[in-house]
Specification:
Layout lengths: L2 H23 L6 H12 L4 E4 L6 H11 L4 E5 L6 H5 E7 L6 E7 L6 E5 L6 H4 L3 H6 L1 E4 L2 E4 L5 E6 L12 H4 L4 E4 L5 H11 L13 H13 L4 H12 L10 H6 E3 L3 H17 L7 H12 L4 E2 L1 H6 L3 H11 L6
Parallel strand pairs: 1-8, 1-9, 2-5, 5-8
Antiparallel strand pairs: 3-4, 6-7, 10-11
Helix pairs in contact: 1-9, 10-12, 12-13, 13-15
Length: 333
Amino acid sequence: MSEKKDIELVEKLVQGHKLIIEQLKKIIVGQQNVIDELLIALFSRGHCLIVGVPGLAKTLLISSLAEILDLQFKRIQFTPDLMPSDITGTEVIDQDISTGKRNYRFIKGPVFANIILADEINRTPPKTQSALLQAMQEYKVTVAGQTYNVPLPFYVLATQNPIEQEGTYPLPEAQLDRFFFQIDIDYPSEDEEKQIVFQTTGLHTTKLEKVLNAEEILQLQEIVRKIPITDYVVDYAVKISRATRPKDKLAPGFVKKWVNWGASPRASQTLILASKARAVLSGRYAVSIEDVQSVIYPALRHRIILNFHAEAEGITSNEVIKLLLETIEPKHI
């Protein structure tokens, strides 16, 4: 691809980003950081774990994004009795009436869509949770020895309710690590909540306009990976990731005290890809330290596994990340 074509794609991405936000603001009140993080993950080709209490428009946000991007959307409600085949699909026997011959036919499950909302993923047992793993990592599903490709782009958004933990199955660390970001959604402000009430209790309906399509999104995901990055920025991202590991020589005292397991090398990859996406969405061709710092929270908060000392003291992974940002400064590299 020529340099001129790349520049045109970057300009298209910047313009598309603005138009997507304009369309989402017709439906969603506030939540600007959440929207930004969702779009960074989308164009980085990553998946998101969304944590928030019920009623914060998680489903509305995701389905609206799919409509704006002209992508196929499927919602899977995870329940304790959900089976892996309910997600991936299953084989059925077809019989030809005239000949009596029987054949197997694969019926695709809801995972065969562009945007998947895995609602309350921690409500279902690990066997079913893991049915998403191959699709998330390899963009393929294997059923009865046959492998099927999922449609591209493929974007999984799993939600968790942080309130009720009874009868749930916490995601294992290996599966948490496969999520590009953990996005935390908080309550709206008082003014935003008033606006939500006015907007949703009348007869007014909003029509969303389509901004991009699947082919264009795939091109834009490629252009994000072409953005150059300096050793200085990579060194900073790697040092931050390594500092979360209590056995690493870079780990500060509070990490050794509070952290059981730190972030994997996948976290360093996430920081760089997300920083590239943030830079290009802003119309910049170079990644800065500020880009890395802005994506550290969603990239690391689910990858830092705290020990009982942290839990006893009420320490969260967000507080560990805040201390890391204060301790690991770029000028010390």
